[in-house]
Amino acid sequence: MEIRPVLAVIIFVYSREGNAWGLSEDGRLDFVELAEKYDRDVEEFEVLTEDGYKLKLFRLPGGRRGPLLLMHGVFDSADTWIIRGNTSLAITLVDRGHDVWAGNCRGNKYGRSHVRLDPDVDEEFWEFSFEEFGYYDLPAIIDSVLNHTAAGSVTAIGHSQGNTIFYVLAATRPEYNEKVNLMIALSPICFLQNVPPPLKTIIELSPSLNELAEFLNLREMLGENSALTAKWRTLCPKPLIGYKICIQAILFLLTGDDEDELEPDFVPTVVGHFPTGTSEKNLYHFGQVASGRKFARYDYGAKVNFAIYNRSTPPEYDLSAVRFKVALLVGANDKLSTPDDVAILRQKLPNVVYYLLIPRRKMNHPDFIWGRHIEDYLLPYLFDLI
Fold first, then answer.
1. Could you say which of 61, 138, 172, 296 is the most buried, measured as most Cβ atoms within 10 Å of its Cβ?
2. Of all residues in the chain, what percent carry a pLDDT higher than 70?
3. Cis peptide, bond prior to residue 198, ω within 30 of zero
4. Cα(281)–Cα(301) distance, rounded to whole angstroms?
5. Which residues neighbour 18 within 8 Å (Cβ) at sequence distance 6 or greater?
């Protein structure tokens, strides 16, 4: 099993380049265009963070119910909530009367802008990890939603990293506990010490991979306009071979398999939106959390740590400071957010009001956002919560 992802990556990297001719129409549309295609009202806003990043925030206006904020995972964007069209989570929630907002973190295709830094020129632009998502991006997004709606708080739904940043927010800016009335965590990521191979192997190699990235001056990973992303969007939509390499041999080995829910016909749509970029520092921070077995701040090495933290090792985020209500929804077949790691998180959070191991045995990491039949195995639980 260990050699399969290696072979897949070799085939992928050396595949013939070409245009993304195989993407579906929905794979080529952005958030606003998708909303308009499916006859939903949509609004677009620009959010400015305290440290100068410009982020796009999308709204699907609903009924009188309070604002519901959706936050995406790593390598992802707000698109993830709408690419299933009329059966997607964002549109389903709007149709049930919710005022839906979809945020973006810096570094993805909707967050490659800054008041003074150029992401294609300035290395400083990419000096961020999930800490900055939680400390800068999320407060700016929440405040923008509340300012536009005059609401007192938001209900939040996060997927994967989209949950991690809420824990960082509450631990570093405790005043925001009052601005989140419920955090629904789909496939929660916080601890990563029980992930299986091949991800476990990648984590073990992360210090060496980080050194290699620094040597090659790689700051942005799998960005919207990168050569690897272009290869991904060329190869993956190809019949048979694209699904076998991109989904079965790469994605499913990292996230858990579920061919019934991420079917071949959907691939030309999903690969048009994923991946859409993050920083190498962000990936390495997750690697540090996994290898160190602690949910801690970024480790710069003893000398720099002393300058920043006044100690040789980075401090842990105080999860006891996460006072808002949290609902944890977990997949038994999820190789990124394993039930064992979520159990550690559940023990450390002080206000877990709901926990569910989804009954569907093959529930994996992408099923929570891209699953073909989420109305059967996920949405009923969400509706009960919100």
1. 138
2. 95
3. yes
4. 14
5. 234
Number of CB atoms found within 10 A of residue 153's CB: 18
Query: Counting beta carbons within 10 angstroms of the beta carbon of residue 283, is it exposed (0 to 12), middle (13 to 18) or buried (19 or more)?
Result: buried
pLDDT band of 6, cuts 50, 70, 90: very low
Q: Cα separation of 185 and 382, whole Å?
A: 10
Q: What is the pLDDT of residue 18?
A: 39
- The contacts of residue 378 (CB under 8 Å, 6+ apart) are 186, 329, 358, 367, 368, 371
Q: How confident is the model at residue 332 (pLDDT cuts 50, 70, 90)?
A: very high
Q: What is the 3-state secondary structure (H, E, C) of 217-244?
A: CCCEECCCCCHHHHHHHHHCCCCCHHHH
Residue 208 CA to residue 202 CA, distance in Å, equals 10
How far is Cα of residue 174 from the mean position of the Cα atoms in its chain?
Answer: 22
Active site residues: 160, 365
C-alpha triplet 204, 209, 210: angle, nearest 5°: 110
**What pLDDT sits at residue 65?**
84
